[in-house]
Amino acid sequence: MSIRFLSPYALQAWSAVAAVALLMWALLRTVPRILKITILALLAVALLIVLIGNIVFRGDRDIAYRFAAPDAPECSAQDSKPIVLSSNERSQDNDELAAIA
C-alpha cells in the first residue's frame, strides 16, 4: 500500500471533518437565537394567559359566596367579634357540616 493510494481518502476525510465543523458552527450560532425566540414566545403566552384570566374570567369581589342575610344574628355577631363563630377545638374550625348545623 502506498501513500498515494490513501491520499484521495485523506482529502475526503478532511472535507467531511470540515463539513461537520461548519455544521456545528452554524448550529452554535443558531441555537441562541432560537432559544431567545422560544423564551420570548413563552413569556408572551404566559402574559396572555394572565391577562385573559384576569380580564375575561375575573371574579367579582363584592359577591358573598356563602350567602347569609346581612341582618342575620350570625352576621351582626361577626361584625362586632370576628372570632365568635370559631370553635374552641381547632379540628372543628373548618367543618362544613358543623357550620351548616
Entry keywords:
101 residues; mainly alpha; 2 domains; 3 helices; 65% helix; rod-shaped
Distance between the termini: 100 Å
Q: Radius of gyration in whole Å, from Cα?
A: 36 Å
Helix fraction bin: 55-70%
Q: Report the sheet with the most strands, covering strand number, pairing sense and barrel closure.
A: none
Q: How many domain modules?
A: 2
What is the count of β-strands?
0
How many DSSP helices?
3
The fraction of residues assigned to DSSP E strands is: under 5%
Query: What's the order of the H and E elements?
Result: HHH
Compute the average pLDDT. 77
**Rough shape?**
rod-shaped
Note poorly predicted spans.
Answer: none
Structural class from helices and strands?
mainly alpha
Summarize the structure.
With 101 residues, the chain is an all-alpha fold. The protein has helices spanning 3-55, 73-80, 96-100.
